[in-house]
Backbone:
């Protein structure tokens, strides 16, 4: 279910402009799987009207969809078998490639770098949408991707969802076969949040050296894998994964801070809405297109958790010494971990549990708990309880 939502979240937004002719042109291109042409058409609208919020929303979403399609084309090139994948970004269903190229650790890294750049471009465009009255309707079921890059054998959004849902037609299409959704200002912040969340995942993966054992890890996903010279490391969690690009860890932290803040922005706009018009992410008094309504208590608990996480990521709160001493008794009492300092300047063996258990956390990342608030584990437990179970996990992933 989580995998289904992850891909669904990736392809859930696209938009026509307010002008009827532009809307028809854009939707026609999206439904025909001509995303590059759709992006170019909307870019022309932005160039002609630089202050048009709808045009910027349309462009940002077109760029986001291009990020999805570019990833899909890369997965097709290397013959990815998505149903065998458990790794993020490899589960996007693509047509079978009878003549795939051989993939390597470096080539997969290049694929992720392209996606990271695509996400940054889309997020920057969406950040220019500040008009509270922006609204962009779209029939999501008609979105089609050209994952083969040939203009043939295109893949629809509905078929992607069905493949991720055991080839079962999604239930939320009943009564709304076209899956019409009217996206608005809150959804702008929501999509920006997802851009940052996906970017954080890529930065985290690219910050460490995982070349050892790459062949074994992806051999079930890709039919042709260039052999890696280093065998997989046994009990890697004891020695830790080497942080080869520490700057990326700082960027990961910044992306996660943005996710937290954009969640607050998302719900500030959504809760202020007075209409009820095919909402993507509704407040309790609106109709939920997916049939999974949220009540105010769940929203409040979610936002409280996001605020708590933000304070941890900015160093306003500390990871408590009691938790650190659970890892190692050598950690100093009443000295909490400043997560911002750690992620902005991580040691090379950040995840070395052997060192952490014997030496404890370096003093460079510790601060007195008398000067700062500490993490409240009850906040974390509360959100895990209200979003427990398959339905709750789906809701939490939907919120990003």
Residues:
């Amino acid at each position: 279910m989580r995998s289904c939502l992850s891909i669904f979240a990736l392809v859930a937004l696209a938009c026509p402009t307010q002008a009827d002719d532009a809307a028809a042109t854009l939707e026609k291109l999206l439904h025909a799987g001509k995303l590059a042409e759709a992006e170019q058409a909307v870019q022309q609208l932005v160039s002609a009207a630089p202050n048009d919020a709808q045009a910027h929303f349309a462009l940002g979403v077109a760029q986001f969809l291009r990020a999805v399609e570019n990833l899909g084309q890369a997965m097709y090139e290397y013959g990815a078998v998505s149903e065998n994948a458990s790794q993020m970004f490899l589960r996007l269903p693509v047509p079978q490639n009878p003549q795939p190229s051989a993939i390597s650790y470096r080539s997969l890294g290049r694929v992720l770098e392209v996606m990271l750049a695509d996400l940054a471009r889309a997020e920057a465009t969406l950040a220019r949408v500040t008009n509270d009255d922006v609204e962009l309707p779209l029939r999501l079921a008609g979105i089609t991707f050209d994952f083969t890059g040939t203009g043939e054998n295109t893949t629809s959004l509905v078929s992607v969802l069905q493949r991720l849902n055991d080839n079962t037609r999604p239930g939320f299409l009943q009564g709304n076969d076209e899956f019409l959704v009217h996206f608005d200002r809150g959804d702008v912040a929501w999509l920006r949040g997802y851009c940052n969340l996906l970017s954080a995942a890529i930065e985290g993966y690219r910050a460490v050296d995982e070349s050892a054992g790459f062949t074994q890890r992806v051999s079930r996903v890709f039919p042709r894998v260039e052999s890696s010279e280093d065998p997989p490391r046994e009990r890697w969690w004891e020695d830790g994964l080497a942080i080869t690009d520490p700057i990326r860890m700082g960027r990961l932290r910044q992306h996660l801070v943005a996710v937290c803040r954009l969640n607050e922005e998302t719900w500030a706009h959504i809760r202020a809405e007075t209409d009820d018009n095919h909402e993507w992410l509704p407040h309790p008094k609106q109709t939920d297109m997916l049939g999974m309504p949220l009540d105010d208590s769940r929203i409040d608990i979610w936002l409280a958790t996001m605020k708590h996480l933000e304070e941890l990521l900015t160093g306003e709160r500390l990871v408590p010494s009691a938790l650190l001493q659970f890892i190692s008794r050598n950690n100093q009492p009443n000295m909490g971990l400043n997560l911002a300092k750690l992620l902005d300047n991580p040691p090379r063996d950040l995840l070395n549990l052997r060192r952490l258990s014997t030496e404890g956390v370096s003093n460079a990342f510790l601060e007195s708990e008398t000067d700062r608030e500490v993490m409240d584990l009850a906040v974390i437990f509360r959100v895990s309880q209200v979003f427990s179970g398959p339905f709750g996990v789906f809701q939490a992933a939907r919120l990003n």
